[in-house]
Structure formats: structure tokens, C-alpha cells
Amino acid sequence: MTSTFHTVLDSPYGPLTLVADTDTDTDTDTDTETDTRGDTEGVLCGLYMAGQRHRPPEETFGPRDDDLPCFATAKKQLSAYFAGELKEFALQLALQGTPFQRSVWQQLSRIPYGETRTYGQLADALGNPQASRAVGLANGRNPVGIIVPCHRVVGSDGSLTGYGGGLDRKRRLLDFERGAALFSA
Q: For the purposes of burial, counting CB atoms within 10 Å of the CB of 99, is it exposed (0-12), middle (13-18) or buried (19 or more)?
């Protein structure tokens, strides 16, 4: 029986493929709760942009199912984010990665909307100031970009550096958040 399903959401940054697992016995160290019920509601485990680096093969996404409750929740929150109405996601996630990757993704989730951090600052927050390159590699493997905001990480001089979704998307996401942050109360 298939436990992985996907849907596609149109966004200002191109189509986003959302992937969910309905047999979630995985664990995550992000700030969001992980659903371990293994029921048919599903838990989000991926958000991929078209042409994204490290995007898994399409056949691993499972069949399309636009009706999973977790997709409806994710679509609602993503739509609110793109409208400038949501600054922090509250979604159940099942993130697959090494313990180090999950610790980096947890730090990413703590970067406030409209702000950036450097790879070095994230390494410092993890208690390993020499790990900025490893932080960059883990950042690039983030399976739920935008929701776990890897686009908010910049180079030590504030410059835009690698982003799995492409530097143009990273720039647009940062500009969007900074602009929306300027006009929100």
C-alpha cells in the first residue's frame, strides 16, 4: 500500500509540489509537532519547487491526492503566507534527515520572518562555530523550503549565496518578506 502522496500548488514562485506521508513513524527535531498516528490524514514531509536542486525523483512522491487534510492545511497557510498575512507556519512535519540536518532545520525555523542569519550565526547557535559549511550543506537539503525558511540564510557579508530553488527565487522571497514586514503592524 502506498503511504506517500503529493499535490501541486500554484504560487508566485512557480508550482510547489507538496508531499505527505500517511504512515508516519518518523521523528523530527523541528519546533513543529510531528504526527505519529499513521492515519490517513497525512503529514507533510516535502515541499519542492520546479527545478529545485536536490529535488527527489517524481516517482518517489507517490500518486496525486488533492484531498489529504494535511494538504488542505498546508495550502491554506501557504496562501496566507503569499498574501502577506502569515509570518510563521504551524504545520505538522515529518522531516527525514540526519540528526545534524534536523538540528540545522530547527535553527532555520527560529529565524524570524523578514530577517536573515548567516551560516556562521547558525553554526554558532548549534555550538559549533567551525561548522558553517556543514550548515550550508544541511540547509541545501531542507525538504520543506519556505515552511522551514532556508531562504533566510545569507553569506557572512550579507550576500545571497546558494539556494536550492535558485538565487532569483531567494531574492524574491527575501524582498517579499522585507516588504511585507515594512507594512505590517
A: exposed
How many Å apart are CA 120 and CA 147, to the nearest integer? 21
Angle at CA of residue 175, ends 12 and 153, nearest 5°: 105
Is 45 among the residues known to form the active site?
A: no
Per residue in 51-89, pLDDT (tens digit) is: 888 899 999 999 999 999 999 999 999 999 999 999 999
The strand pair at 43-49 and 153-154 is best described as unpaired
Contact call for residues 8 and 45 (beta carbons, < 8 A): no
- Beta pairing class for 4-9 and 16-21: antiparallel
Annotated catalytic residue within 20, 94, 150, 174: 150
Give the Cα separation of 11 and 82 in Å (integer): 8
Q: Which residues of 128-154 are buried (b: 16+ CB within 10 A; e: fewer)?
A: eeebbebbbebbbbbbbbbbbbbbbbb
